[in-house]
């Protein structure tokens, strides 16, 4: 039921359409976490500076804390919950993060992994400088950067 302060919205998240009524000002992050209960996407700084809220929109990384949910309509949204196979098999990037111990506290990990997937799929992991530049929007307070870069490079190497 649409109220005066809400609007209808259909979001396609991880391949599934969701019909919602949301406040006009709702961010994609808040809709994912509070309405769809997809809590893998984290609220870090809530100002677009840390990358913890990174999701994929049509295969490209987007900061969901700065994205109005209404602007995500007619786009395919991917979250960490939708990355692994239906049978539970990990995505190669998830497996690489485990193999390279590319996390400590894990708070930034979902955003890091989604950015890393886009980095490799969009061809931005050809050299260290390009990889660092692409991943620079995702901060890790635990300083697991060397392991993160090795994980991304290992997946990029397998794809070549």
TrEMBL record:
Keywords: 2Fe-2S, Iron, Iron-sulfur, Metal-binding, Oxidoreductase. It comes from the Bacteria. Residues 7-83 form the 2Fe-2S ferredoxin-type domain. It holds the Pfam family Fer2_2. InterPro entries: 2Fe-2S-bd, 2Fe-2S-bd_dom_sf, 2Fe-2S_ferredoxin-like_sf, 2Fe-2S_ferredoxin-type, 2Fe2S_fd_BS, Aldehyde_Oxdr_Iron-Sulfur, Beta-grasp_dom_sf. GO terms for molecular function: 2 iron, 2 sulfur cluster binding; metal ion binding; oxidoreductase activity, acting on the aldehyde or oxo group of donors. PANTHER family: OXIDOREDUCTASE, IRON-SULPHUR BINDING SUBUNIT-RELATED-RELATED. This is (2Fe-2S)-binding protein. It comes from Deinococcus radiopugnans ATCC 19172.
């Amino acid at each position: 039921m649409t109220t005066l302060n809400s609007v209808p919205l259909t979001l396609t998240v991880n391949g599934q359409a969701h019909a919602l009524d949301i406040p006009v000002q709702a961010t994609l992050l808040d809709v994912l976490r509070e309405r769809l209960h997809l809590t893998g996407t984290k609220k870090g700084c809530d100002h677009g500076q840390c990358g913890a809220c990174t999701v994929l929109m049509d295969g490209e990384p987007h900061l969901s804390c700065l994205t109005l949910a209404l602007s995500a309509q007619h786009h395919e949204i991917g979250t960490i919950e939708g990355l692994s196979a239906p049978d539970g098999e990990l995505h190669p990037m998830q497996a690489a993060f485990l193999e390279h111990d590319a996390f400590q506290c894990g708070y930034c990990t979902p955003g890091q992994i989604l950015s890393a997937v886009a980095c490799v799929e969009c061809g931005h992991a050809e050299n260290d400088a390009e990889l660092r530049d692409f991943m620079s929007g995702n901060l890790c307070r635990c300083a697991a950067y060397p392991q993160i870069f090795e994980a991304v490079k290992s997946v990029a190497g397998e794809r070549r």
